[in-house]
Amino acid sequence: MKLLRTSSLLWLATLVSRGWAISLLEVLQGYPQLSSLYTLVNSSSNATALLANANNFTFLAPSNDAISKFNAQNPGVLNGTQILPNIQYGLLKGGYPTLSISSTPQFIQSNLSDSTYANVTGGQAVELVLGSDGTPEAITGNRSISTSSGSDIPCVGGIVRIINSVLSIPVTTVMEITNANLQYFIAILNADGYLSSSATYVNQVLDLHDVTYFIPNSAAALAGATQLAQNSSAADLEAVFEYHIVPGSVNYSPMLKNGMSLKTQQGTNLQITIQGGDIYVNAAKVIASDLMVANGVVHVLDNLLNRFDTSGPPKPTATASTTSNPAPTSTQNSITTPTYTSSGGNSGMSTGAKAGLGVGVGVVSLALISTLAFLIYRHRRNKAAATAAAPWDNSSMSGATASPFNKFYVQRGQVQRQEDPGLGLQSTGMQQQYGADSGVAGREYGQVDGPAIPPRSPSRALRGDGSYF
Ligand SMILES: *[C@@H]1O[C@H](CO)[C@@H](O)[C@H](O)[C@H]1NC(C)=O
Ligand SMILES: *[C@@H]1O[C@H](CO)[C@@H](O)[C@H](O)[C@H]1NC(C)=O
Ligand SMILES: *[C@@H]1O[C@H](CO)[C@@H](O)[C@H](O)[C@H]1NC(C)=O
Ligand SMILES: *[C@@H]1O[C@H](CO)[C@@H](O)[C@H](O)[C@H]1NC(C)=O
Ligand SMILES: *[C@@H]1O[C@H](CO)[C@@H](O)[C@H](O)[C@H]1NC(C)=O
Ligand SMILES: *[C@@H]1O[C@H](CO)[C@@H](O)[C@H](O)[C@H]1NC(C)=O
Ligand SMILES: *[C@@H]1O[C@H](CO)[C@@H](O)[C@H](O)[C@H]1NC(C)=O
Ligand SMILES: *[C@@H]1O[C@H](CO)[C@@H](O)[C@H](O)[C@H]1NC(C)=O
Known about the structure:
By secondary structure, this protein is α+β, with helices and mostly antiparallel strands. The chain has 2 domains: 19-170 and 380-389, FAS1 domain (Roll); 173-341 and 450-465, FAS1 domain, CATH 2.30.180.10. Helix content is 38%, strand content 16%. It is built from 17 helices and 15 strands. It has helices at 2-17, 24-30, 35-43, 45-52, 64-73, 83-90, 173-179, 183-191, 200-207, 219-231, 234-243, 351-389, 394-397, 404-416, 429-434, 440-447, 462-465; strands spanning 57-62, 91-93, 106-109, 125-130, 136-140, 144-147, 153-155, 158-163, 211-216, 245-247, 261-263, 269-275, 278-281, 284-293, 296-301. The strands form 3 sheets. Strands 10-9-15-14-13-12-11 form a 7-stranded mixed sheet. Helix 1 runs parallel beside helix 12, helix 4 packs parallel to helix 6 (83-90) and helix 8 packs parallel to helix 10 (219-231). The longest helix has 39 residues, at 351-389. It is elongated and about 70 Å long. It starts with a helix and ends with a helix. Bound molecules: 2-acetamido-2-deoxy-beta-D-glucopyranose (8 copies). Residues 1-21 form the signal peptide. Keywords: Membrane, Signal, Transmembrane, Transmembrane helix.
């Protein structure tokens, strides 16, 4: 502890002796591993303004290596329209020092809420968790893992952590189905007529904001869906589809509690059970959780959901039943905004971080006094230079086309909102995220020819049937 304090004081003293105030932008400017990031931020007046005014944050800052790795795979993306959303996504709300990260995942909202990239109220989330080797991880789109090897860098308003790969902004649900290679689900969409252009409800739920998707992806689910297609009306199939979607709340796995019931788009509820450490939705087991998408989260199931049987998974055997589930603890039928928790019951910057900053600020104040005159001079000089060089104050940005960057951005926004009118699905995410060579997977997906809706069999009522629904 003493050692830690001494070294951080030495570090602060170094900064002070070089005349640096410890702002977020100055951390980016001062750390050699962050020079690429600093150059990118400095090239975007909006990104500069965002970071200059940020408060109460954890900023995940990709290293030079991370940026060159990203640029090699996505040339020309980060220095174009993508720099601002990437900065916004790395700017997490609240202080999350390494010590607050545990093996229980936390889903922390970021500053990214531009609807071109995210339709999660309050900002797209980043998952923070301790990896199996004890390294802090930030998990983002398609469960890409960014790790941080160095220590936390405290600065005015929050904490900077250097990460080894650029965060992956979650793509649309349609794109994520392809990215995550959910082959059985794609076959289910095909088998049950959900790709048909007349299945307009599919696009409707893909377009919602704040959604939890339960996506069946197994041979058993496909067999069930195939059989269902033979015996069901279009309305029945629509009900089945909509029963797998929970609108109005983004329920990351830690928020799925035993006994919770969630209202689906279809109108009736599904039931969450935690048993043997696994999450069940009705009787189906969650086999992959927390695939983040632009408008919420996807959990993958081992079977279709049956809305006529919400009784949950088979109970464990008699001997195991001593560890049976506690009584239902909550119901969650009308949540509109997810809540995010930080570990240890601490919201925002941890007490430790606050204390750390407090101690640091207190002790160096002596040193500060001696260099104050120099600092003030330096600060004023910098400020004047920044204002002159980067015209990002409100007055110069007030016109809609004040910035050429802004103009380009709007044009791309229009280009991106393409729809394939022949299909019940649309894809925009990949283009937004990966620029030029994106869209490919989306188009491939779009080429799948939807089958005609299966013939209506009014004589078969699903309700009494029971075998699947
Ligand atoms: C940059 O900020 C200005 C002023 O706040 C705004 O009008 C403009 O749309 C922003 N540009 C982008 C790309 O967000
Ligand atoms: C972005 O970087 C690429 C090289 O990675 C370069 O060819 C391109 O001109 C740059 N674009 C802008 C707008 O600076
Ligand atoms: C992102 O930061 C800007 C500037 O501080 C703020 O106006 C905006 O509300 C923030 N957005 C979110 C989603 O927190
Ligand atoms: C967010 O929702 C709007 C419709 O409300 C849609 O136009 C936009 O494409 C969505 N953004 C993403 C990233 O899906
Ligand atoms: C997404 O993640 C899955 C599982 O790790 C992987 O198999 C797949 O290749 C990834 N997709 C992309 C596009 O990175
Ligand atoms: C669907 O109907 C076929 C015959 O038309 C029958 O063999 C099958 O068992 C039925 N499936 C269900 C789930 O009832
Ligand atoms: C910091 O942000 C977190 C997360 O948004 C919030 O819960 C907390 O109240 C904020 N703390 C302060 C001091 O503003
Ligand atoms: C930051 O941008 C300004 C122009 O906006 C430029 O004059 C300055 O050299 C840049 N600084 C760095 C370190 O790139």
